[in-house]
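Researcher: Next entry in the queue.
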Amino acid sequence: MVSNCLSLGLHLNLHPHKHNQHSFSYLRSQTKAKLYQHVSTVSSHNTSSGSKFDSQHKSLKLYELGNHNLSSNRRVGNLCSTRSGDIRPRSMTGSEFNDLEYDESQFDPSLTNDELKPTTPSQRTFSWLDMSSLWIGLVVGVPTYYLAGSLVDLGMAWWQGIATVVTANLILLVPLVLTAQPGTMYGISFPVLARSSFGIRGAHIPTLLRALVGCGWYGIETWIGGEAIFLLLPGHIKNSAMSHTLPWLGTSPLEFSCFMVFWLAQLCIVWRGMDGIRKLEKYSAPILITLTSCLLVWSYIKAGGFGHMLSLSSKLTSAQFWTLFFPSLTANISFWATLALNIPDFSRFAKSQTDQIIGQAGLPVFMGLFTFVGVAVTSSTSIIFGRVISNPIELLGQIGGLATTVLAILGISLATLTTNIAANVVAPANALVNLNPKFFTFGRGAFLTAVIAIVCQPWRLLKSSESFVYTWLIGYSALIGPIGGILLADYYLIKKMKLNIGDLYSLSPSGDYYFTKGYNVAAIVALLAGIIPVVPGFLHKIGALSKVSNGFVVVYDNALFFSFIIAGFVYWIIMSRLRKKQSSLPSSSQPLL
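Model: Structure for this entry, 593 residues:
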């Protein structure tokens, strides 16, 4: 009889667990549910009496006509019937999101615009190949080139360095896929997902924290991209008067011009929105793979094989290896930790859960292969040039030749573009859109991010205190761990993967995610609980504290693990207790969480 009920086109509220049980939407949904149940009961006991069912059918049609204007925009969920006669939504895949129920006309204008609304089926264009291309574009870059090589420099064998990188990314893959799931399931971005745990207004806290890290890295990566162009310019141009440093600018006009060229190139791509980013990543992937393969083949031929690399053994004892391994593992997980946090910004465009999972499953493989290239090529330079050249830009300049220079500029620029745009533009832009949807669009948010990158003057930061900047940014990124712990604990342990889409865009005090004036105090307490234990070790790392307990050093060396687990656990405990307390109160007096 459920099929008969569905044929009437009734619009059932799929989220009956509202705090305000006297709201109109709640009463309307309950009335409809009872009518559904009544029809099922009548029809099951009166199969031979068509007149009774016909009268019920007409009554329901009249009811539906009376409510048509109120629910014409609703998206009706896939329903199934339990033995008790209740109508409930069945489990859905990402491709079935268009069947979820919500009314866009009821979204609060201060909480939404075209960038923040759930993606429509026509916007779900990311296949598994697109998701894989995204990660190839992110992985192939100058910083990744150094990862395993830096571990080899610290004493690890070549295979130990690569194995550490691959292990870190296998671990990262778990929260990456788990955080991406709600993005694909509900078509929502990271700022909107954050509203479900931090509150409608409290979501600004995690999104702006993520945005600040993105802005910092965006400026530095843009400067690196500009430096690549500068270093590969002909010698007579680099030695011209334009390359002399201006004290008031802090750099030379030529270097600044290269920076601005790269800055503008990125902005042109970002201004086209997520589709422009998708096309950049998709078409850049095969080019980057080809150029990387060419560099590997060149080093193999010139060095007469990889015998020198394969002969590199570990310089560490067993105890020394494990002492180095865990901090290195944490650092490599932190490498993509910020992107793992805002991955819903991309997975919301995936065609299905299968596409986002398969597309991201290649991350450990891509990281392993590219770090192998970094170790192999770097080790071969000691034979080819008589010295180790770990900087790929310097290496390409050393090779020389017009063709090499052109390909080098293309490859380095493309690698930096694909990494910087996806990793450091999308999150800050969406955070600004979430901050003020009426003013900011994705393009405006990206433009302001780019402007902030200039204001930060990354050339001054890198030249004056490079180690501090990287220590601060990496440490800051590790502090992002608590946000990830809270999001996953909330979505999987508290919400059980069920979100009320309408309330994610509502400022109503009776909304599921309004909490206390728009802030979830439990999430803020859990965030602080995850951050505070890391602070002493961080201050010691940057030299602000001369001496701290060895325990704090261990916590900082493994900051991502500790902060993630502590914050997630604290949040789960607080919310579980609050829910038990709420369920024990009379329904008429249940307070907000």
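Model: Residues 334 and 474 are 7 Å apart (CA to CA).
Researcher: Noted, moving on.
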